[in-house]
């Protein structure tokens, strides 16, 4: 197994409930060239090295967690690190075949499937649910797993059906670190609430 294949990771939430169906191991990839106006993840736009982690290390971490339904790739732009993510998916699928893969991308489904990039083609073979399209601030709102109404949820495999969209889902999570700092995960977050929590 080649542990020299690295991913530039911005952040990880091992038990996210807001980034797709069920509890998920969410990885925010560091780096995005699209720079959508009003991006809510601006800390992940820079391509500067943040946490360089081997795919083997991440696969071991993912496979050791009981109770997750799958893995979510966010960012940043996951398809800018598509080859390494595909290798990660391959390792996880061999060891935990029940886990699903959910991926966000600022590119549209049409752009991704027409890409000549070999890593993109490989990664798309593993993705069960794709949320595509750039974030558009003038179309932002409260949408399941999406920041703006132009973004679409695509079922790329048979592992889920559209019935999943009518179920109840967690939209916001609040985490408090050991040193008492609060953070939030989800869409259209209430930053006033976050500031209030951190000033208690």
Can you tell me about this structure?
The chain has 200 residues and is of the alpha/beta class. It has 2 domains: 161 residues, TIM Barrel, CATH 3.20.20; 31 residues, no CATH class. Helix content is 22%, strand content 28%. The protein contains 5 helices and 11 strands; from the N terminus they run E-E-E-H-E-H-E-H-H-E-E-E-E-E-E-H. The strands form 3 sheets. Strands 3-1-2-4-5-6-9 form a 7-stranded mixed β-sheet. 35% of the residues are buried.
Instruction: List how many beta strands DSSP finds.
Output: 11
What does the largest sheet look like? Answer: 7 strands, mixed
The parts where pLDDT drops under 50 for at least 5 residues are 189-194
Mean pLDDT: 87
Question: Main attributes?
Answer:
alpha/beta; two-stranded antiparallel sheet; globular; 200 residues
Nutshell version of this structure?
The protein is an alpha/beta fold. It has helices at residues 55-63, 82-95, 109-113, 118-124, 191-198; strands at 6-16, 24-29, 51-54, 70-75, 100-104, 129-132, 140-143, 146-148, 152-155, 172-176, 182-186. Strands 3-1-2-4-5-6-9 form a 7-stranded mixed β-sheet. Strands 7-8 form a two-stranded antiparallel sheet.
């Amino acid at each position: 197994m080649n542990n020299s294949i690295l991913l530039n990771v911005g952040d990880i939430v091992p038990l996210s409930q807001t980034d797709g169906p069920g509890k998920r191991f969410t990885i925010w990839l560091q780096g995005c060239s699209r720079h959508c106006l009003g991006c809510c993840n601006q800390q992940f736009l820079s391509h500067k090295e943040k946490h360089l982690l081997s795919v083997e290390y991440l696969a071991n971490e993912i496979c050791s967690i009981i109770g997750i339904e799958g893995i979510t790739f966010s960012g940043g732009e996951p398809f800018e690190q598509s080859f390494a993510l595909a290798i990660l998916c391959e390792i996880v699928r061999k060891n935990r075949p029940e886990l699903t893969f959910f991926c966000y991308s600022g590119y549209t489904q049409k752009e991704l499937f027409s890409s000549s990039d070999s890593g993109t083609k490989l990664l798309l073979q593993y993705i069960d649910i794709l949320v595509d399209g750039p974030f558009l601030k003038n179309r932002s709102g409260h949408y399941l797993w999406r920041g703006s109404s132009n973004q679409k949820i695509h079922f790329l495999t048979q592992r889920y059906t559209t019935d999943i969209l009518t179920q109840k889902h967690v939209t916001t999570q609040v985490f408090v670190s050991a040193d008492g700092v609060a953070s939030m995960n989800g869409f259209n977050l209430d930053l006033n609430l976050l500031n209030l929590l951190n000033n208690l």
